[in-house]
Amino acid sequence: MELQIALDRLPRARALALARELAPSADVIEVGTSLIKAHGMDVVREIVAAAGPTPVLADLKTADDAATEFGMAFDAGAGAATVLAVAHDATLEKAIRTAGDYGAETVVDLMATTEGRRTQLAANLPDDAVLAAHVAKDVQSAQDGPASLLGAWATGRRLALAGGLGADDLPALAGIPRLRVIVGSAVTGAADPLAAAQELRRRLTSLERTRSGR
């Protein structure tokens, strides 16, 4: 189980400071959509530098012109970027092809998709594409958590879950293979973000040891 920490809805300087502080506890540092919209690819470059060896994901939520947008993110040093699953199939194909050209990762954001669309994509997209079940921020208070979006389509796929998750959600997710847990405000909004990130890492390690019988 991997941990991705999302930096979003933060002042630029705060995001950079948190990237430096939290990167050692994370498998991936995410540059949130709002940060990219506010500061462009410059903030991606800055967070890549701040995160050091920890990979950085640019949460572009690309809906069109994937070759251009993904290319910009990867030229800025990102190792992964997101494309919306509700985009045209041609856009998803271009995103995956562009990521492949850069040796980077495509994360397909399943926000606002139907079960049928999730099933179609899981059947047709290459195995190295990560399928991210995501409950959008604006509906989190009225909708079940992202694990509720999983179904038969998720079997055998690389998965990510996002949408209001925190440390207390981890035990229920421990049985899901090939999973990346995306946590944002539970870390960045905590009184002590580093302690919150370290607690997530501790719990993940404990769950992995329990699952493997060590």
Explain how this protein is built.
It is built from 9 helices and 8 strands. It is α/β, with parallel strands linked by helices and about 210 residues long. An 8-stranded parallel β-barrel has the order 1-2-3-4-5-6-7-8, surrounded by 6 helices. Helix 4 (about 65-75) runs parallel beside helix 5 (about 90-100). The longest helix has 20 residues, at about 195-210. The radius of gyration is 16 Å and the shape is globular.
Describe how the helices and strands are arranged.
Elements: E1 2-7, H1 12-22, E2 28-31, H2 33-39, H3 41-51, E3 56-62, H4 66-75, E4 80-84, H5 89-102, E5 105-109, H6 115-124, E6 130-134, E7 159-162, H7 170-173, E8 179-183, H8 185-188, H9 193-212
Parallel strand pairs: 1-2, 1-8, 2-3, 3-4, 4-5, 5-6, 6-7, 7-8
Helix pairs in contact: 1-3, 4-5
Order of helices and strands: EHEHHEHEHEHEEHEHH
Strand order of the largest sheet: 1-2-3-4-5-6-7-8
State the separation between the terminal residues, measured CA to CA.
Answer: 16 Å
Outline, from the CA principal axes? globular
Into which percentage range does the β-strand content fall? 15-25%
Q: Percentage of helical residues? A: 40-55%
Strand pairing plus helix content: what structural class?
alpha/beta
**Average residue pLDDT:** 95
Number of strands: 8
Rg (C-alpha, Å):
16 Å
Main sheet summary? 8 strands, parallel, barrel
Q: Work out the helix count.
A: 9
Low-pLDDT runs of 5+ residues are: none
